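Sample intake sheet
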Amino acid sequence: MIMPQQPPTIDESTADERREYIRQKFPCLSDCDLCGTCAQFHGQEPRFAFADYIDGKAEFLEVAQRYRH
């Protein structure tokens, strides 16, 4: 599956499609010292950090703004 350029909107996607978008956008490299993705989300895996987006409670950008430094 090819990842869309823009995150799927809540109204036009399923939870599974949003979960897959997050999985592709923030892949786990299994090398935490090298990656740093979870650190960007305050020690959370992206799937937990974006739970509100996946569950359809907030759009991707709303959730992403919570983690801006």
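Comment: The chain is about 50% helix and 0% strand. The mean pLDDT is 90.
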